[in-house]
Amino acid sequence: MIPGFTVKALAISFVAAAFCSLGLIWYLTYEPPVGGDFSLTYRGNEWRLSQNAKELNILYFGYTKCPDVCPLTLSHAGQAFHGLTEDEAKRVHLLFLSVDRDNDVPEDVANYAAHFFPSFLGLSGTREQIDKTIAMYHASYIIEKDEKSHLGYSIAHTDRLFFLNNNGVVQATISNPRSSEEIIKTIKEHL
Amino acid sequence: MNLAKTLIALSISCGAAAHAQSGPPSLKINDGYIFQPLKGSNATAGYGILKNVSGKDAALTVVSAEGFGAVELHETVPVDGLMKMRRIENFHLGKDASFELKPGGNHVMLFDPTKDFKEGDTVHVNFKLDDKSVAVPFQVRLRNKPAKAQR
């Protein structure tokens, strides 16, 4: 055996093994970015994130006739915004997207969202726009008929705040928010 | 401050219950409140801690509420990662047991307000404890009050 060849082969093997290991670690730990640009409507006008994004954008999916979970989460978010400085509040807004395409009037959605904090935007869209945005954030909703209820239906939906950068990419999420403190903390961490 | 509010709520509860039925009240509420209906929505919810003082186990159903077109009992439950709300025919209240209606859980759902409500208004919700009618007062509270002002 040629001593020089052995050393060279060992070195090549070592480098190859190192690359393989790094590749494996990357493969096992890599998480592709979630989110991106999306197009919806605000008070009947076209609204695109890339044209309206702030430094931080908080996205929430719900519907105006939800009497419990949506207003609970939006109330905590509204309280969180009241806890921001004036400068901080200018750099972030909340986007409330109604998934109740058939029953929520865009004007109502906008008025409803603004009730929780003046800068909250109530967004609507076509069914295709809504579903595309929902899928982009790995969220979901199910509309179920409920003949026994006065409303006639209910919507089970993801109860999660998505914190997006100005490209719409998720930076953080809070599931089932039940206090304003965690929301304030997360906003401040990402401004 | 909270004790005073609790005592006021209890005394209102007793008065309202006495108004709806003869004899001692069968259902009391502590800190009963309804969020002011919001512009853009036709639904809101009521919460509080109910106590069955009828002397026996009973089924609680809801019949009507002053100033609303319809009222139902609902529960909110997590199902497969989604928050789902569904109508419940009745809640079982054990003898002398308390039953909490709270945001994100069991609640009274109120539809189609027929008038404007202000903070502090009282809404009487009419329940049935088995076959016995009882009216329970809920105070109207604002949704969007800043945290410092919220109780």
Describe the structure.
The complex is a heterodimer of chains A (191) and B (151). Chain A is α/β, with parallel strands linked by helices and 191 residues long. Chain A has two domains: 1-30; 39-189, Glutaredoxin (3-Layer(aba) Sandwich). Chain A is 42% helix and 24% strand. Chain A has helices spanning 3-29, 49-52, 69-82, 86-90, 106-116, 127-136, 180-189, and strands at residues 39-42, 45-48, 56-62, 92-98, 121-123, 141-145, 153-157, 160-164, 170-175. In chain A, the strands form three sheets. Chain A has a five-stranded mixed sheet. Chain A has a two-stranded antiparallel sheet with strand order 1-2. A two-stranded antiparallel ribbon of chain A has the order 6-7. In chain A, a hairpin with a 5-residue loop joins strand 8 (160-164) and strand 9. In chain A, helix 3 packs across helix 7 (180-189). The longest helix of chain A is centred in the first third of the chain and has 27 residues, at 3-29. Chain A starts with a helix and ends with a helix. Chain B is mostly beta strands and 151 residues long. Chain B has one domain: Immunoglobulin-like (Sandwich). Chain B is 13% helix and 52% strand. Chain B is built from one helix and ten strands; from the N terminus they run H-E-E-E-E-E-E-E-E-E-E. Chain B has one helix spanning 2-20; strands at residues 27-35, 43-52, 58-65, 68-79, 82-88, 91-93, 98-101, 107-113, 122-129, 132-141. In chain B, strands 1, 2, 3, 4, 5, 6, 7, 8, 9 and 10 form a ten-stranded mixed sheet that branches. In chain B, 36% of the residues are buried. Mean pLDDT of chain B is 85; it is low at 6-20 and 147-151. Classes of the chains: A alpha/beta (191), B mainly beta (151). Chain A binds chain B through residues 64-69, 71-72, 75, 78-79, 82-83, 107-113, 115-117, 122, 140-142, 146, 148-151, 154, 156-159, 176, 178, 180, and chain B through 35, 38-45, 69-70, 72, 74, 76, 78-79, 81-87, 103-104, 107, 109-112, 143-147, 150.
